[in-house]
Amino acid sequence: MPTYQAFSDFTAQSRNVTALMAMYAQLEREPEVRMELTPIVVFMAFSIESYLNSVGSKAIPFWDELERLPWKQKISILHQVAKQNADWGREPLQFASEVFRIRDRLAHGKTERVVGPIVDDSQVADRLSLQDGLLPKWYREITKPWVLQAKERFRILMSYLGALHGLHESDHLLTATGGIIVRDGDDA
């Protein structure tokens, strides 16, 4: 008597990219609503790194030994295996550096004192202390225009990373493949 077993080859990056695109959909659907942009940058970095691991596991049999390396080393290794040179000074790798520079500041940041202008009115100083203007320069770079423009740069980067190893330009969007394993009664 045959038996049947469903299976799914789940991709972690698909869940990350799906979450990222849901954040973008909300941002684009309600452009006038003030939305926290930081999670978009964090999920973008998360999505890039999970895709690096996906590509690496397809291209390099011993990727499990490499996946804990820093993101930049992973990209360099993927380039070396593909007999390509990583050009960090140009797109799309320049974009990866931008995203991870911000992510690293968010993940590893220490307290930074940001000092406003000297004023002679305590109420003005009080208002200044509550404004978004007293943010570090690197954090002020996370603007709605930058985040919106980053969406296309992200797509180009992901397509580029997959293409290094012959993967389709939309491979990073692959959610899961699956099927059914059929065993005849003798396979038990």
Low-confidence stretches: none
- Strand percentage lies at 5-15%
Number of strands: 2
Question: Could you report the average pLDDT, rounded to the nearest whole number?
Answer: 91
Written description of the protein model:
The structure is a single chain. This protein is mainly alpha-helical. It has one domain (3-187). Helix content is 53%, strand content 9%. It has helices at residues 12-29, 38-59, 71-81, 93-108, 122-130, 137-140, 144-163; strands spanning 3-10, 176-183. It has a two-stranded antiparallel sheet with strand order 1-2. The longest helix is centred in the first third of the chain and has 22 residues, at 38-59. The model has no long low-confidence stretch (mean pLDDT 91).
In short, what is this structure?
The protein is mainly alpha-helical and 188 residues long. The chain has helices spanning 12-29, 38-59, 71-81, 93-108, 122-130, 137-140, 144-163, and strands spanning 3-10, 176-183.
How are the SSEs ordered, and which strands pair?
Blueprint: E1 3-10, H1 12-29, H2 38-59, H3 71-81, H4 93-108, H5 122-130, H6 137-140, H7 144-163, E2 176-183
Antiparallel strand pairs: 1-2
Question: What keywords describe this structure?
Answer:
188 residues, mainly alpha, two-stranded antiparallel sheet, 2 strands, 53% helix, elongated
